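User: Here's a structure from my thesis project, written as structure tokens. My advisor, Dr. K., wants to see whether a designed sequence matches the one we expressed. Can you design one independently, without my sequence as a hint?
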């Protein structure tokens, strides 16, 4: 999924100097962003004051939206570099196309993982016909310097490992949770898991003390370490936890995001992650001139033009504003 904001601004992120090294309970409110003509998302990362959670650097939550009489998601071809995109659905379908030739329909609880590496372009759309409801999350993972120029590729995993406990079913998207490890490729120590809680659940989820974590509320209402979360909100938890108390009085859906704090400072502008202004300028030039990022074949529409660069210099900075 793209950042379609036509007034894009640079997002400085990364660097361990701003990592919260102890448990906290920092509630992040979303910013509503229009995505295409008919989809509105709630953007949780980057957020005012909080840019990253481990290597997770971008989180959009959308739906559930009734798209029975709507085109649904329609995101034209657009570029990425220096990151991975994670497509995750609770309801509906998304058709993914990219410049490596991938064509894949992604359905609920299936992992669509695109590694942009040095350069890729892709589109996302609701297939025709499509399900009545669309509900999911789109997330980005920043690639470390050693791997950010890797070959672009797309992975699809229809079956993912699960961790279960009374009242809890956790599907592991990326990384390892408890004894379950996702088949998805990762380049830094991190974890992403979908948590389905049933009513009257009171459970403790094992965590890695050296990871920082956040929990995104997808549906229902749950209490995370005693803090009530409603859909479209996210709770940043910091580091230093061995376990996480979860409680739900009725069915609820959450996403656990975590990872080792990301050491490098980054620049995130539009759909690119770089380390310098020169890299971003070159990426914009290449996209607008039709080079480097390849071609997405089969999408019925023109590629997205890149927004103008800001007048102020782009500089990599820390994790918080």
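Assistant: Designed independently from the structure alone:
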């Amino acid at each position: 999924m793209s950042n379609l904001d036509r007034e894009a601004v640079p997002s400085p992120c990364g660097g361990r100097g701003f990592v919260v090294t102890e448990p906290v309970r920092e509630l992040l409110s979303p910013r509503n962003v229009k995505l295409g003509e008919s989809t509105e998302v709630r953007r949780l990362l980057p957020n005012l004051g909080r840019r990253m959670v481990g290597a997770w650097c971008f989180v959009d939550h959308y739906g559930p939206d009734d798209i029975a009489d709507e085109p649904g998601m329609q995101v034209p071809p657009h570029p990425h570099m220096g990151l991975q995109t994670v497509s995750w659905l609770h309801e509906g379908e998304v058709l993914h196309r990219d410049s490596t030739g991938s064509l894949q329909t992604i359905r609920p609880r299936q992992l669509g993982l695109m590694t942009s590496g040095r350069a890729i372009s892709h589109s996302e759309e609701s297939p025709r016909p499509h399900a009545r409801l669309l509900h999911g999350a789109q997330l980005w993972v920043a690639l470390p310097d050693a791997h950010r120029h890797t070959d672009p590729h797309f992975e699809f995993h229809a079956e993912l490992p699960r961790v279960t406990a009374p009242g809890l079913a956790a599907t592991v998207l990326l990384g390892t949770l408890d004894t379950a490890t996702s088949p998805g490729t990762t380049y830094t120590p991190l974890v992403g898991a979908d948590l389905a809680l049933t009513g009257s659940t009171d459970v403790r989820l094992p965590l890695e003390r050296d990871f920082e974590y956040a929990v995104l509320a997808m549906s229902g209402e749950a209490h995370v370490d005693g803090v009530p979360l409603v859909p479209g909100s996210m709770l940043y938890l910091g580091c230093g936890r061995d376990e996480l108390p979860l409680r739900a009085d009725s069915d609820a859906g959450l996403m656990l995001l975590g990872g080792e704090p990301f050491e490098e400072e980054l620049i995130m502008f539009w759909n690119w992650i770089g380390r310098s202004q020169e890299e971003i300028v070159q990426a914009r030039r290449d996209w607008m001139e039709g080079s480097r990022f390849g071609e997405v074949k089969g999408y019925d529409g023109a590629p997205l033009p890149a927004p103008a660069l800001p007048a102020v210099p782009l500089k990599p900075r820390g994790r918080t504003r």
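When you compare it with your expressed construct, this may help: The helical segments are 277-289.
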